[in-house]
Design a protein that fits this description.
Layout (H helix, E strand, L loop, with lengths): L2 E6 L5 H15 L3 E6 L13 E5 L13 H9 L6 E8 L5 H12 L3 E2 L5 E4 L4 H15 L2
Parallel strand pairs: 1-2, 1-3, 3-4, 4-5, 4-6
Helix pairs in contact: 1-4
This protein binds flavin mononucleotide.
């Protein structure tokens, strides 16, 4: 697999910054990264790949963004079995409940969750958060 897809939703840009850093890590590890906003890709494109990343901030009341990302993730649940998935996203005032729910959904769908948990960053990723995203990308590229 030469290209790794990183699908994200972001309203304010924080999760987009994370997605771009994941993409940078993938490319540092020698693979091509396709970082794409969720509305610009069909979930069908993930059916044939063995590893990919998804990012979404905590929205609503500790849920995924409901207009685009939630239906996308519902579709992914239908074919996630056996795939390696990296999850990431930004949050503000919560304790990460949205990500724990998302992790559980992916596990229940039979996916292998990279690091066994999603990478969460408080608001805008700082240097440490950006480095963690890049590391996630490198790890994903090595799968
Ligand atoms: C409508 C809305 C709902 C939100 N709900 C939550 C929430 O339930 N828990 C939380 O920790 N942060 C919540 N946030 C904060 C966002 O997760 C945070 O600002 C994040 O950095 C946004 O990422 P983005 O810039 O990629 O859109 C919410 C923000 C908005 C605009």
């Amino acid at each position: 697999m030469d290209e790794i897809i990183v699908v994200y939703w972001s309203g304010g840009g924080n999760t987009q910054m994370m997605a771009n850093a994941v993409g940078k890590g993938i490319e540092e590890a020698g693979k091509k990264a396709r970082v794409v906003f969720v509305d610009d890709i069909s979930s069908d494109e993930l059916k044939g790949v063995s590893a990919f990343a998804m990012g979404c901030p905590a929205m609503g009341d500790e849920v995924l963004e409901e207009g685009s990302m939630e239906p996308f993730v519902e579709a992914v649940e239908g074919f996630a079995g056996g795939k390696t998935i990296a999850l990431f996203g930004s949050y503000d005032w919560g304790d990460g409940a949205w990500m724990r729910d998302w992790e559980n959904r992916m596990r229940d769908a039979g996916a292998f969750l990279l690091n066994d948990k999603g990478l969460i960053v408080n608001n805008e990723p700082d240097e440490e958060g950006t480095a963690a995203c890049e590391q996630l990308g490198r790890q994903l590229a090595q799968r």
